[in-house]
Write a structure and sequence with these properties.
272 residues; alpha+beta; 11-stranded mixed beta sheet; 6 helices; 22% helix
């Protein structure tokens, strides 16, 4: 959840601490989407069509694909780290209502396919296109993509061009993590989550992040570029090259007090 306070460094962290309760309360009443981030994915040679559900029935106009809907343990472009299992309860309770869309268009014309199942899966960072040894966990969606629903997106998946996805979610449980022992609770969260991160440098450079422990999942969208770029279609052979630099959308930050911040979030959705 990006909080534009106009502050940096210690002043920003003090601002977050002072207003944490109000910021979290507002966040839990908003829905989170993806906003563009300038990074792309590279395929790993070990990721082949044989490893995952990947089927083309062009005569029937039906494709079956395995999609990484979300990668955990990754500091995304909006300061969130998704903790493994945060969608488990939501998927168990409402999997049939979760949609496969494009660009978060929650309407009939926005549908791409019909989800078959969701599950968490351990994967190597390198299999996701990140040049790091070790493992993480991802949220997988298997989907039946139908040409009759959206011919353009059907062609994009058929051609292997859909390499990033994004979730629409509502925060349920979120903790603030701060790399400062003076903040006992927040430092405990930092010490717990930081060792698992795939992009530790990004976290160290800003000194904090939001650890999202539980969220309600509403839909998974194909997007051109997502705030969590490690969200490919598994088995694709023609994916572009990875940029390891974490770039955020260009925004102009202006100082606001907490009352202006609250008014802003009441009027606009959180993007992340």
């Amino acid at each position: 959840m990006k909080v534009e306070s106009g502050l940096t460094g210690k002043s920003h962290i003090e601002f977050l601490m002072k207003n944490k309760a109000e910021i979290l309360e507002i966040a839990k009443h908003q829905q989170k989407y993806t906003e563009a981030a300038a990074v792309v994915i590279e395929a790993d040679d070990s990721v082949t069509k044989d490893n995952f559900l990947y089927d083309n029935d062009e005569a029937a106009g039906i494709l079956k694909r395995t999609i990484v809907a979300n990668t955990y343990n990754w500091l995304d472009a909006h300061d969130d780290v998704h903790i493994p299992g945060l969608f488990t309860k939501s998927v168990q309770n409402s999997a049939r209502r979760i949609r496969h869309l494009h660009d978060h268009k929650f309407e009939y014309g926005g549908q791409i396919g019909r989800p078959i199942q969701f599950y968490d899966k351990g994967m190597k960072w390198r299999a996701l296109g990140h040049p790091k040894n070790g493992d993480t966990t991802v949220l997988v969606m298997e989907s039946q993509i139908e040409k009759d629903l959206n011919p353009m997106m059907y062609r994009e998946y058929l051609g292997g061009h859909v390499d990033q996805h994004s979730v629409k979610m509502t925060y349920v449980k979120v903790d603030l993590a701060i790399n400062d022992e003076n903040y006992q609770s927040e430092y405990k969260t930092w010490s717990e989550v930081f060792p698992t991160l795939g992009n530790k440098d990004a976290a160290e450079s800003q000194g904090y992040f939001w650890a999202v422990r539980e969220a309600r999942l509403h839909e998974v969208s194909a997007v051109l570029v997502g705030s969590n770029e490690l969200t490919p279609t598994l088995g694709n052979k023609s994916q572009p090259a990875l940029s390891t630099e974490r770039k955020e959308p260009a925004t102009q930050r202006t100082p606001v007090d907490v009352h202006e911040l609250i008014t802003h979030y009441k009027k606009h959705l959180l993007y992340g």
